[in-house]
Amino acid sequence: MDAFFASVEQKTNPKLRGKPIAVIGSGGRTVITTRSYEARKYGVKTGMNIYEARKACPHIIFVVGNNEKYTHTCKGLQKIYLQFTPDAEVYSIDEAFLDVTTTCHLFGGPEAIGNSIKAEIKNRFGITCTVGIAPNILLAKLASDIAKPDGLKWIKPEEIKSVLEDLPLKELWGIGSGLTGKLEALGIRTCGELGRASVSLLRNKFGIIGEHLNAMGMGLCNRPLYVHEEDPKSIGHSMTFPRDLSGRREIEAEILKLSEMVGRRARKYGFIGRRVSLTVRYPDFETFSRQATLYDYTNHTHEIYTNATSILNSIRLKDSVRLLGVCLSCLIKDCNQMLLFEDRRKEKALLQAMDSVNDKYGDFNLMWASYLKQLTPPRVISPAWRPSGVKNVDVK
């Protein structure tokens, strides 16, 4: 999708159309999540704070994001994709991969499908998207990046070599600035040079990933589409607070809330884990994580919380806290084995009752008493949000 959040806001509010806007969170410490193409002309970038954005574009309009609009649209987009192929992976809230190998003959070919999807999205939602077509998802994503905004580009097999020959490394999906710098230190500056580089040199420098990098330089990618969501490797939540936290009680209260969010989502989708991680960010953006391995698997809120606070107790905080994150990993499916002891059965029944109430009436209608009157940071939707499965996080 083209500037997805901003485009949705401009569609639903005609006064914003044709103007430089930036979608932000509702908190005082928010950053830009998406900016319109009108704002991009002034150098406004995702991740800027509002002061930086206003300096780049003094007449920019800030719009507090409405997550329900975006998730509603994403679900509608998925229905459009499925009209053309059952093999559709919603990669993020504003991006999807479609394998039309077995269905393209039914709709006049890949290019016709791309144009039909663009027209359907425009007619139904009044926003634009860019379609990239290629033999694999690496090149399809590259094609869509090249054609933005509101374009369509088809990279055919015979065109791959010429497209990649002089393409800067950073333009290829999966090669960030750090990796680009390391490759440039080896004299490799373009994708064409990467494809011709010695595999042994790349393997010696980067390990097994070296072979993958060489294949990417030639436009090769064997990653399949994940049509059905795979079991997650971890379940986590983090929060940036409206003000820095320094009191131990308020820090622990926020850890409890995060532990409840993690535990509830793990219980909802039937997972248990045995590794708890705590992430801390200071006001100067120094960030670190520590983890603890549990004796047994769990998705119990207070077991997650107890281990997260134990990690906190092992850390000597040098400053107040800007962000906290709690994560449960080493996940397996919960087989709902009968608990042996009565107190454990009561604890499980309590959690099930809380989950049932909050599922019906909304998050934190029923909450732990120690979280009352604590901070409630605005929820900013993650780009990794999905219309279904464990990444389908409540956005209200």
CATH topology of the domain at 234-371: Dna Ligase, domain 1
What composes the largest sheet? 4 strands, antiparallel
Rounded to an integer, what's the Rg over CA atoms? 24 Å
CATH level 1 class label of the domain at 234-371: Alpha Beta
Q: Provide the spatial order of strands within the biggest beta sheet.
A: 8-11-9-10
Order of helices and strands: HEEHHEHEEHEHEHHHHHEHEEHEH
Uncertain segments are none
Average pLDDT score = 88
Beta strand count:
11
In the CATH hierarchy, the architecture of the domain at 234-371 is 2-Layer Sandwich
* Tally of DSSP helical segments: 14
- Identify the overall geometry: globular
Structural class: alpha+beta
Please state roughly what percent of the residues sit in beta strands, choosing from under 5%, 5-15%, 15-25%, 25-35%, 35-45% or over 45%: 15-25%
CATH H level of the domain at 234-371: which superfamily?
Answer: DNA polymerase, Y-family, little finger domain
Helix content: 25-40%
- End-to-end gap: 23 Å
Task: Chart the SSEs and their pairings.
Blueprint: H1 4-12, E1 21-24, E2 32-35, H2 37-40, H3 50-56, E3 61-64, H4 67-81, E4 88-92, E5 95-98, H5 110-125, E6 131-133, H6 137-147, E7 152-154, H7 160-165, H8 177-185, H9 191-196, H10 199-206, H11 209-217, E8 234-245, H12 248-268, E9 271-281, E10 287-298, H13 301-313, E11 321-333, H14 342-361
Parallel strand pairs: 1-3, 6-7
Antiparallel strand pairs: 1-2, 4-5, 8-11, 9-10, 9-11
Helix pairs in contact: 4-5, 10-11, 12-13
